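Issue: copy button drops trailing tokens. Both records pasted manually instead:
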Amino acid sequence: MAQRDGTTRRMSFGQATVDAMRSAMREDDRVVVLGEDISWGGNFGQFRGLLDEFGPDRVIDMPISEAIIMAVGVGAAVTGLRPVASMSFVEFTLGAMDEIVNQAAKFRYMFGGQVSVPLVLRASDGVLRSSAGQHSSSLEGLFTHLPGLKVVAPSNPADARGLLRAAIADDDPVVYLENKRITAKRGPVPAGDHVVPLGSAAVRRTGADLTIVTYSVMTLHAEKACARLAEMGIDAELIELRSLVPLDLDTVLSSVVRTGRVVVAHEAWEFGGFGAEVVAAITGQAFDRLRAAPVRVGAAQAPIPFSPPLERAVVPGEDEIVAAAREVMGLC
């Protein structure tokens, strides 16, 4: 676990994941990495330098076929290795859904617990600089819907390292989502073997008037929104989920019960998004404590446009969170 003396190292989100990979591979020679072009570091440098230290037997370039990458990853996992499979962009997982849905997610159940699938699927998601419809999606709702998969989505370097360490150590398949916009974001990372347990949310800001629940890049927008709301006299509490499955619903409910109002925000499409599940859980377990109907913030129901103005019109940010908070407070 992290050292107790408060010592930190400053690094980017991407560097934190490389550090986590390096630590895991040094500790356990069963940890291997596979994907397209990862020998030179991956699309966003998330595997940079690993080939030099661990060689091509553990940092394995694969053919341009996500189905093959996942099939090899699942086979390696059930026969004793602990593979980390890179899908590059999250949309590319769609070419491997049979292996993800029907193999990785179901094997433990179908074999009566006699086999585990200690596999991490890493994928870059979210919007970045007009990447357009096929390289800008947030598909966490697909993965959270599937029994047998765990799903995490960190927003900062410390959690990027800590959650990846926990994902690699887990005996079940974990989908590790790293938003493209925050790959270069820098921040402090606790020294030592920093691990963030799966299923633990974080209270990023305490407040009394309403609760904002979010994850991944939307956490950064929410932090700015909270500052703007404070200038308006609205005291918002910010809960970052970090882990979507397993979900730390206790932390969410504890906050909502106190504030009585909630906004759930994510970059993914609002319709059918993960926020709907969070809102359903809140209303199902804390309906009598709500002072107003929950409000969701998500992308409009359209492919992500290439045009920057159109992209901004579809994808929510700080302004939409502020507007939702004012709505739930009855101010608009």
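Record 2 (pasted manually too):
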Amino acid sequence: MNFPIKLQKGRVETMEFMTGIREKETLELTQLLNGDYEGKTIKINGAVHTIRDMGEVVFILLRKSEGLIQCVYETGNADFDLDGLKEESAVEAEGIVKAEDRAPHGFEIRLLSLKILSRPAAPLPIAVSKWKLNTSLEAKLSMRNITLRNLRERAIFKIQEGIARGFRDFLHSQGFTEVRTPKIVAKGAEGGANIFRLEYFGKKAELAQSPQFYKQALVGVYDRVFEVAPVFRAEKHNTTRHLNEYTSMDFEMGYIDSFEDIMAMETAMLQSVMKLLETEYAKELELLHVALPNVARIPAVRFDQAKQLVSEKYSRRIKNPNDLEPEEEQLIGRYFKEEYDADFVFVTHYPSKKRPFYAMDDPADPKVTLSFDLLFRGLEITTGGQRIHDYQMLLAKMEARGMEPEAIQSYLSIFKYGMPPHGGLGIGLERLTMRLLDEQNVRETTLYPRDINRLEP
């Protein structure tokens, strides 16, 4: 809305004020699907996905965020021509809505006019309109900004959006507060050599491996907190399951009775996420032929028992008694699928020597921790457990490991001044998406992967 304002020397001009979203003439696909527009003249915009010239009739498929819209140009029925129209042109079209069972969504637009808003400066380097991109993963990632326009590629990340959205919505419903923690830190939460170090105005700093220390501190503020944010691991690997930057979905909850409270919360969260995907992302699930896993109940097995079970059933010698090898994770997933038709399995009570110093040891057996991993179809997607909340207990465990408390005084101060029993977890979003969609490489489910070889695009 415009209002008159008086300037010096008697000049009067107008000042514009924004009062909210402006109503537009063009309609979105969702509006067309939810309204009664049959036989009506409407305006739409979008990118030209494909052009199929049949002679007297030209089919133009427009790509919108929600899907494709079929437009029909008929010679003699339109008072314009299609000169200069190319795939990936941005256009605004006007036409009459007509029912057509063979068209996407069961209708098409009979064109009356078409305005080209922009034209591509060069032909596409790859045919994004094809169902599947017939190229290598390396080429696909190198042209990521373009290949993401492919319908299948887009569907992957719509489903990933649904996972993160479901995670947030569920935790909000359970009284969790969403937080934002620093990604430039003085000390890593996990320690070890896999740290990205950087110069920070003359000081030594690191990129955060985890929000662990901060989310524990914030339990003392809000009782229950969560975050969806990137974390960084400087591991010099080149596997199908690792990234140097990935999205971690973390939560931490106070006043727990045991670490099983955390496992129960994750189970309920997964149930809520799968329900959201089923109801609001059905189109993408169908497009990618995804069958959602059954999460009505998730089995839990102790670490040592899991190793023994797969060793006996699959005649595999136990090589490392203190950790799970990737092959063992796969066999555990296979075992519980065959025996219990379970896609997920919690593996609990990991050895203390393989867990961080803040992991709570089992009072009944201090050699193991009150911690767990969640495996999804044979791949670890979650690590979590109960934390030590007692200040003196933390100091004692650090001393037993030869650690210097002075190095992390900021963290220890959380417990020096009192903390409730608490615990939490971290979920790798890209890994979870990878397993859900049955992809074989985590880069397929990462918008812009960062690994030891890739910094662009």
